[in-house]
Amino acid sequence: MPASLPLSDAIHPYSDEDIMKRIDACPKLASLQSINSALAGLVRSEQSITGQIADIIRRDPSLTARLLRMVNSVYFGLSAKVNNIEEAVFYLGLRQIRELSVATPVIEDLEKINRSTLRLPWRELWKHSIGAAIMTREILATTSFHVDDDTDYIVGLLHNVGKVILASTFPEAFARVVEGSYSSASAVCARERELIGWDHARVGGYYLTRHQLAPEITDAVLHHNDPAAAEENAYFAAAVQVADQVVRSVGIAGGFEKVPALSDEAWAFLPGWKILYGNDDRETRLARAALSNRIQRLPALLSGLI
Predict the structure, then answer these.
(1) 83-93 pLDDT tens trace
(2) pTM greater than the 0.70 cutoff
């Protein structure tokens, strides 16, 4: 009987039909159909009352636990522990409450989707995803691009959803991907295409399209490693690409694979940075200055969330 081939030789890219069939078998994210709509409506209202918001939060034990963990983290540096939801809402503010109300159910849904037996650092992926969501919003706020909803936060949060799908649907091939060390995110995508046929960005874009999400979201996820290809939604994709590198720069890995973080000087050479700020040295300096404080505080903030 002939010896079996090594896994790297035995795996070949799957057909588009097979890939789509496996992705289609993954459950949808219920949270994307209705992301805490009652809470979202309240926090957008100028007449919101802290007590009303607290009552809605109490109905969600996971959101309650995450909120209290965050407000008691070193990020806020409070001298006394906060156990009261109304008080936590006061300290956090409506913007961070809204971000928590988006992130909490999405992360929980992604954990349910993951049926993989691979031993992977999932907690680091969730931390990176929330960090990218925060920084995508912060980055776009430094530009003239106006966003009047939570699309900026959501595209950052979901940009690596394809990795969760790949780990669940192609565990053996994906295991080979995460074993390697790579020079860049593009090299990771090339390896995914070599072993599977699609990379995580394409998988994520296709998966989210099944949810009938807005093109701003699906295009940003699909093209976050090549933002110019997102065309009219290039600003969202560009902000995600830069946010991914910013989060890596403070020691929060981009998921599972080994990719070195870019230095902050190298950010200006990213295609996404050029889309957002052009080649203007003054714009680059202003953007760095605007983002600097938030970047430095990001690890402490995330330690209270995940």
Answers:
(1) 888 888 887 77
(2) yes
